[in-house]
């Protein structure tokens, strides 16, 4: 191969495929490779045979749980926010034309030993089972404050300042209970920890507005999900990249990452070919057991434990919702990390008609990871099949400006893509030498095609 590329990209996860699409559209020459025969990398959607190959190698696939074509089980399930940035990116780039989305039926949160719908408006706050009578009134006032806030109208500020006050101060002003702060911070603003409390309230305000405006878009929950699994998403971006000249190669063994004496990237060797490029972008698993120029480029920061569960019923106590995002805030179960439950069904073409899928995940804190999922697993009722996985969370040790090797972070334990957006922005900035990702904005009315 004599061709010279601007970027070689390793791994076809969502983050990498979004980046390759954006770079191709930007006029860059991109070669994208994956060691697997399928798209998606760590976040692929597997069929029944692949599921057994991965989790029950050598064992026969049961005959009574459907056929391959009924299955598209995400190894890392993630939902999109209807008004989130990735959705906007999909619309802006027209990738939506390759995909069909369906909205998620419900968004739930765990509080005081039971689950309830996350209220998204002051009206819902008043009816919510999450709070007692007096707390509902306080929450209603809080949500009214958020909804009515206008930067240029001090009358709507109630003496508060979103830019200088920490979020705790706003919570204090409305006298909200700790458990209410938990669901607002973790199930609406989707924070991974409580450090947001001490940062300016503006950030939390923006996230709550994203949540409520996303709910308002299609009505039931703020989340949407692609039919046939999240693995459709990287494939959609890959198609876009291809239209703009990007080249894709699956099933490629990566033998060596070649660098010069100073450690600067030269090319990628696969078999007896070396592909040369100005820069490399790669998912961190490609660097895990492959030191570059004798140097380790990634480190493990934590592990995620996930349980993929097949159920013969919807998640109990959700009004038979065919799909649900359920968050168990860390404080509610005495943990340092939230537990996420993502549930889907045949309505999303990911399991056969009589089955439901529920994937429980969290960041590992002890030496008994599976036990840590218990608060989530206990909410599911009888579990028909369960596949447990433990995956390291990897991150780059260096930014890559010297080596021209730009490594992404592993997808985290959350079941939404908002953290992927940040990752795309971060790698884009690093890999383009500080350029800010600027998406031409289309009309806000133009959303993704979403089924009710
Ligand atoms: C399921 O996966 C297997 C193994 O990768 C593959 O050979 C087969 O074509 C897939 N089946 C369908 C229906 O996608």
Automatic annotation (TrEMBL):
List the GO molecular function terms.
Rab GDP-dissociation inhibitor activity
Record's GO cellular component terms:
cytoplasm
Biological process terms from the Gene Ontology for this record are: protein transport; small GTPase-mediated signal transduction; vesicle-mediated transport
Highest taxon of the lineage:
Eukaryota
Q: Which Pfam families match?
A: GDI
Q: Which family does it belong to?
A: Belongs to the Rab GDI family.
What is the recorded name of this protein? Answer: Rab GDP dissociation inhibitor
């Amino acid at each position: 191969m004599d061709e010279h590329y601007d970027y070689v990209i390793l791994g076809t996860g969502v983050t990498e495929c979004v980046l390759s699409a954006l770079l191709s559209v930007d006029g860059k020459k991109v070669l994208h490779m994956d060691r697997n025969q399928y798209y998606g990398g760590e976040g692929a959607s597997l069929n029944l045979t692949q599921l057994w190959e991965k989790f029950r190698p050598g064992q026969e696939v049961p005959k009574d749980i459907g056929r391959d074509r009924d299955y598209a089980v995400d190894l890392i399930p993630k939902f999109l926010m209807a008004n989130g940035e990735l959705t906007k990116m999909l619309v802006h780039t027209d990738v939506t034309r390759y995909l069909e989305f369906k909205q998620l039926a419900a968004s739930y949160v765990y509080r005081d030993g039971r689950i309830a719908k996350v209220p998204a408006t002051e009206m819902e706050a008043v009816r919510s089972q999450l709070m007692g009578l007096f707390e509902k009134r306080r929450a209603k006032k809080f949500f009214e404050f958020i909804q009515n806030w206008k930067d240029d109208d001090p009358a709507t500020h109630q003496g508060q300042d979103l830019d200088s006050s920490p979020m705790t101060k706003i919570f204090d002003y409305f006298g909200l209970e700790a458990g209410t702060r938990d669901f607002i911070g973790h199930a609406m603003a989707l924070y991974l920890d409580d450090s947001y409390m001490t940062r300016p309230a503006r950030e939390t305000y923006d996230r709550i507005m994203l949540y409520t405006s996303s709910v308002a878009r299609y009505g039931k929950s703020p989340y949407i999900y692609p039919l046939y699994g999240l693995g459709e998403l990287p494939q959609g971006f890959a198609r876009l990249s291809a239209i703009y000249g990007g080249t894709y190669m699956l099933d490629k063994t990566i033998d060596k990452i070649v660098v010069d004496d100073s450690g600067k990237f030269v090319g990628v060797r696969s078999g007896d070919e070396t592909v040369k490029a100005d820069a490399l972008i790669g998912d961190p698993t490609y660097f895990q057991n492959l030191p570059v120029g004798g140097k380790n480029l990634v480190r493990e920061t934590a592990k995620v434990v996930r349980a993929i569960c097949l159920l013969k019923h919807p998640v109990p106590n959700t009004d038979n919702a065919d799909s649900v995002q359920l968050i168990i805030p860390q404080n509610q179960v005495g943990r340092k990390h939230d537990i996420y439950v993502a549930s889907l069904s045949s309505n999303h073409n990911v399991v056969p008609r009589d089955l439901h899928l529920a994937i429980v995940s969290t960041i590992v804190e002890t030496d008994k990871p599976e036990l840590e999922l218990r608060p989530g697993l206990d909410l599911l009722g009888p579990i028909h099949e369960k596949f447990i996985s433990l995956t390291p969370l990897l991150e780059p040790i260096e930014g890559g400006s010297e080596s021209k090797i730009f490594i992404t972070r592993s997808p985290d334990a959350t079941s939404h893509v908002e953290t992927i957006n940040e990752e795309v922005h971060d790698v884009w900035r690093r890999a383009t030498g500080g350029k800010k990702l600027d998406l031409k904005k289309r009309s806000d009315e133009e959303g993704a095609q979403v089924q009710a």
